[in-house]
Fold this protein.
Amino acid sequence: MRPIFWENQELRLVDQTKLPTEYLEITCKTVEETAVAIEDMIVRGAPAIGITAAYGVALSGIESASCSNREDFDQAIRLAIKRLAETRPTAVNLFWALNRMEALMVKRGTLSTGEMIHAFEQEAILIHEEDIAMCKTMGHFGAELIPEGATILTHCNAGALATGDYGTALGVIRAAFEKDPTISVYADETRPYLQGARLTAYELHADGIPVTLITDNMAGHFMKIGRIQAVVVGADRIANNGDVANKIGTYGVAVLAKENGIPFYVAAPTSTVDFRMSSGEEIPIEQRDSREVTHIRGIQIAPDGVRIENPAFDVTPNRYITGIITEKGVAWPPYSESIPVLEE
């Protein structure tokens, strides 16, 4: 269920705002079209945002091929990177991918403009391929943590649609299900954007993995009555101390899991770890349009003029997290010791 395609120097994205009722692909031929696709959540999920931004830089190179000199070309690329960096402030994979693309310019040497365009394209493809491989490795590590016959709760969508393919949290679930087909899943709907209802349930149902959709405020009830044996979620940024930013509502799920003695795992590649950030208190939280709260698919559900808050993410303190699953293995508490090792 790949959400991102690069063919003939064009970027195609599955429009995730249309799922699950309509499958539509859009084509991006410019940096601006790519940036808007990220901002409008046509593509979303931290790893997928990073991959898309890398391809956006490649598109910038193609757009700027006619620049008369090297300085103009380099300036066009820098402006493209700046534009893409402004799209989503919380997902650190975005900046990780852009830094990799920018590093190519620093190492440019005597490469011609045409050779640089090719280098940008190949680096973006490599970032995409690496992400898929990392997700599958994470799935292998994470599957070992899931009890036989468990029902797993997941929040938001950290599946193939949020990555290059396969998924982080859903990658763990997919690998666990391949190993033990008695595994099942509860998916939170994930208000206000309903990624759980629209995307996670869609992915798991398409794969034949038993999934039950619940509203966000049902999670505690099902934990209390023993229906859930593990929680697995993704992440948009992980601080060096193990604090995790993920879709709004994750913190509440983590508190409920701890209260009910249920392990709470985070699955994310090391590109999601911000090794320079000491704690989650430093993570910028994106504030999104109030219409995401007041409307559902264009239908108004709240009174005119009511005050709205719409943070897209919250931060879960490390004390609520049982383990962090990465492509390099599982980091365990104390995270101030296990996470820095992942950078090596």
